Amino acid sequence: MTVTSKRWILSQRPASAPSPSDLEFTEAGLPDPKPGEFLARTVYLSLDPAQRISMSDRTQYAPPVEVGSVMRGFSLSQIVVSRNPNFSAGDFIRAAGGWQDYWIGSDGVKLDTRIGSLEDHMSLLGITGATAYFCLLEAGQPKAGETVVVSSAAGAVGSLAGQIAKLKGCRVVGIAGSNEKCLHVVNALGFDACVNYKSPTFSADLTEACPGGIDVNFENVGGAVLDTVLPMMNLHGRIAICGLISTYNEEGPVRGPLNFDLTLMRRLVIRGFLIGDYWPRMNEAAQALSSWRADGRIHNSVHVIDGGISYALEAITVLFQGGNFGKVLLKVSEPA
Amino acid sequence: MTVTSKRWILSQRPASAPSPSDLEFTEAGLPDPKPGEFLARTVYLSLDPAQRISMSDRTQYAPPVEVGSVMRGFSLSQIVVSRNPNFSAGDFIRAAGGWQDYWIGSDGVKLDTRIGSLEDHMSLLGITGATAYFCLLEAGQPKAGETVVVSSAAGAVGSLAGQIAKLKGCRVVGIAGSNEKCLHVVNALGFDACVNYKSPTFSADLTEACPGGIDVNFENVGGAVLDTVLPMMNLHGRIAICGLISTYNEEGPVRGPLNFDLTLMRRLVIRGFLIGDYWPRMNEAAQALSSWRADGRIHNSVHVIDGGISYALEAITVLFQGGNFGKVLLKVSEPA
């Protein structure tokens, strides 16, 4: 059997928002899997801000995607044919399968569909949930009674991070890009307040929402949002840098926040975070989040775009334009 | 007895480097000490970069010095007359006595002249030594075998921080403002290397001096120096912000370092530091430093300007122009 893989190739490094001149939708015949390999079919492709980083040649987590190669990305896939004894046809795995519908690989994390749905494994119980959990608790180190601010509060990670902070006894203030999102963040997710960073009164609104200042900033955005938050940080405050999405479509060096001297005056701690440093502890996060959800104490939002792999570029554009509530997943195929 | 105090009054907030139009040298008659108070005579005035901060109205450690008030500063003083049962005439104390030769106060840290000279208590065994010790070990958290970079390496704190890092088994690279200082840092202080940030090849020189990258950055300078260091930081590197002297004469918001996104990509930790958070642990630093010096393993440099209190403005100018090796002290009077 010859399988054709539809996929997105990075044709050039984007200068700003990724466009069809940067990513080419194409197809290629796949070879049969060799011993140790499997053929997998993508069910859900995860769309993440960090994918934009891997399109660029800036210094980053891992080497960038090479021009001419398939775009990198985590996906949930189902094994079709396996020549690897650790995987059987029908197994679901989470792996860096890339922006393609069929792919050949040899490694992945096998998923237990008894403990959560496929969408759960790509959101609350997956990398997204674990990012929110460890970035908040390890990089942010919130204590009960403290004020935690979360940017991208309606987004995949931010929506969970804020809810975890509430569970830990904090006052939680979200920052989001529309009044509609802010309503969702307060009413559906239970944040204490949420402010719209696109409002001309953003800074005053945030000050009002944080009458005791800010102890922990869970940063997903950077740029002007971080510039606004930093002066409100309290003595010994912590800034957990989970992402800096506002800078990912920019060229040239990313400048640090204004009023950087406050790191000194207020003895702040700024910690960069990547979930890859926590792979061995993934179960710890999944168990906590799963248990909180079972108790009805946490709400998971998934924004599924049901378009097939050809919609990947549209899907990441939705993410960068802030058109999503919660985790953006592209539905690529029906599981068998 | 009426005592006249010669002192420096902040007459306006400096717009750049402090000048005679910003600080007025004047005198005033002091009242007799009331019950609980003492009259003290300044022996050594400490000149510190942070004093420039307290002249400004930027957000800072403590409220700024008010215009019209005596300039703030730590000094070593001797009690002349005491109406406080904790102090006796002749006692030496370290206190925030300010830029004046006689002053009335009620509190200070009594110094034991058997364990060190007066100069020692204002450098190695005082706030300077403790700043180097705790900022390096607690904010920088160096491990043996790591590469530590120290800016202002010939300065009061940097010269000690680098030597402590050597004692902890690190490779230590200094950054200083002249080739002469670099020779001192390597030959007298035992750093592994030192580079001159005023050289046009500074960035290449630092890269060459740190072939394995940088694990800990002990930052005293900020600005262009920090911009150069940041891209060389290794995964999980730590930036201990002890000072940002290059920004203290600037007006307006201090921008953060370029390539700030590397905090995320390399999971860096940036920690602001102030010795005031460590007052209860001062003895720990003094004991360690004292013992290392007794073993000949640490060298203390003190730059005494023997000019009396009228030289305070010149003395802080020496500091900001980098004309010193080690701790700058202004000799104000002979101890009795």
What's this entry about, in short?
Chain A has 336 residues and is α/β, with parallel strands linked by helices.
Give the SSE layout.
2 copies of one chain form a homodimer.
Chain A: E1 3-10, E2 23-30, E3 38-46, H1 49-55, E4 75-82, E5 92-95, E6 102-105, E7 109-110, H2 118-121, H3 127-140, E8 147-151, H4 156-167, E9 171-176, H5 179-187, E10 193-196, H6 202-209, E11 214-219, H7 223-229, E12 233-241, E13 255-258, H8 262-265, E14 269-272, H9 282-294, E15 302-305, H10 312-320, E16 327-331
Parallel strand pairs in A: 8-9, 8-11, 9-10, 11-12, 12-14, 15-16
Antiparallel strand pairs in A: 1-2, 3-4, 3-6, 3-16, 4-5, 5-7
Helix pairs in contact in A: 3-4, 3-9
Structural class of chain A: alpha/beta
Span from first to last CA of chain A?
A: 18 Å
Determine and state the CATH class of the largest domain in chain A: Alpha Beta
Query: Describe the biggest sheet of chain A?
Result: 7 strands, mixed
Total E-strand runs of chain A: 16
In CATH, the homologous superfamily of the largest domain in chain A goes by the name NAD(P)-binding Rossmann-like Domain
Per CATH, what is the topology of the largest domain in chain A? Rossmann fold
What kind of oligomer do you see? homodimer
The residue-averaged pLDDT of chain A reads: 97
Measured by DSSP, the beta-strand proportion of chain A falls in 25-35%
Order of helices and strands of chain A: EEEHEEEEHHEHEHEHEHEEHEHEHE
Number of domains of chain A: 2
